[in-house]
Design goal:
- By secondary structure, this protein is an all-alpha fold.
- The protein has two domains: about 160 residues, Ferritin (Up-down Bundle); about 150 residues, no CATH class.
- Helix content is about 75%, strand content about 0%.
- It has eleven helices and two strands, in the order E-H-H-E-H-H-H-H-H-H-H-H-H.
- A two-stranded antiparallel ribbon has the order 1-2.
- The longest helix is centred in the middle third of the chain and has 33 residues.
- The two termini are about 55 Å apart.
Length: about 325
């Protein structure tokens, strides 16, 4: 989210009053642009929250106007371009266009961190300047930044009505289901079910826990890689709203691998019968978890989901056992 600033820079304590005001103007301009970028990113799915960030951007514009007006009174028309990366100790913010897939809660948290950092800057800057007018303005802006949390609450109260909050919560839920739950569930189902046949076929064919573990691990990891790439390459998420393909692929691939490893790890136990018993119990737990997720997020009745998953899992398990005894 944030990266430390490196390269040629100047210590904050070495800044003069002219440089401090120029830096403050730059900070307010940058923050205002970030808030507008947040508003633009949220406008389609979260219009009420977008309105909040638009008004916060207007607040930053007013701060910048006051700073610029005072600067011109003290130092003339030309304002040197001094940015946060030119001063040691600041945290450089990544461009919003590189963070398009952030969720609403993360965006609000970033905004709070921005306000806190700017407030600290004004407080330290006020201690460093001698000019009374500049100090008064910096202290006033620090107090304003401290009040921005309450400002955000007032803006939410004005724009985020109960109906709007419910609407945005439902939108966030749909996004979570599309971007995380669906690829994760697909991976868990594939990993838990598709690896049953090779694992138990190897187990009953060899009667060796170690051989079964090797086959199960290979099947799980291989399936995870395959499912991860398949999910990531299925679409770029631009039209479907399914989110960043790399994130979906990672979630799907990881859950596929975990789904297979869950009932593979018991075969690290040398006792073949004990390992097989534990593996079967874990399979039942995995199938129950899949049914619960489908019922919780996919609006599928639990008994129906359980029946579908258990029947499918049993058929694959039976296939592995029969092949293993062939």
């Amino acid at each position: 989210m944030f990266t430390l600033s490196w390269g040629p820079s100047k210590r904050f304590t070495d800044l003069g009053e002219r440089e401090i005001l120029a830096l403050a103007i730059s900070l307010e301009e940058e923050d205002g642009r970030i808030y507008r970028d947040f508003a633009d990113a949220l406008r389609e799915s979260f219009p009420h929250s977008a309105k909040v960030f638009e008004e916060m951007a207007e607040e930053e514009s007013e701060h910048r106007r006051r700073l610029t007006e005072l600067y011109r009174q003290k130092f003339g028309e030309h304002v040197p371009l001094i940015r946060r990366e030119h001063v040691r100790g600041f945290i450089r913010r990544r461009p919003v266009w590189l963070m398009r897939h952030l969720d609403l809660a993360t965006i609000r948290r970033i905004a709070e961190d921005m306000e806190e950092e700017t407030r600290n800057f004004y407080l330290k800057a006020a201690q460093q300047v001698a000019d009374l007018a500049i100090r008064e303005l910096l202290v006033d802006l620090a107090e304003t930044e401290a009040q921005h949390a309450s400002l955000a609450r007032r803006l939410r109260a004005a724009h985020l009505t109960e109906q709007a909050v419910e609407s945005e919560a439902e939108t966030a839920r749909r996004r979570f289901v599309l971007q995380i739950v669906q690829p994760g569930l697909a991976g868990l189902m594939d990993g838990s079910v598709s690896t049953l046949a090779p694992l138990f076929a190897a187990a009953f064919a060899t009667g060796s826990s170690w051989d079964a573990f090797l086959v199960g691990t290979a099947a799980s990891v291989g399936a995870g890689i395959s499912m991860g790439f398949a999910e990531a390459l299925s679409d770029d998420g631009a039209l479907t709203g399914r989110g960043h393909p790399a994130l979906r692929g990672a979630v799907c691939g990881l859950m596929t691998t975990l789904g297979g490893l869950g009932h593979t790890l018991p075969y690290l136990i040398p006792d073949f019968r004990l390992a097989t018993t534990i593996a079967v119990l874990i399979v039942l737990a995995e199938l129950w978890a899949i049914a619960w997720v489908r019922a919780r997020y996919m609006d599928t009745p639990f008994l129906q989901a359980a029946y579908q998953v258990v029947v499918g899992g049993f058929l694959v398990f039976l296939t592995g056992v029969l092949i293993g005894h062939a």
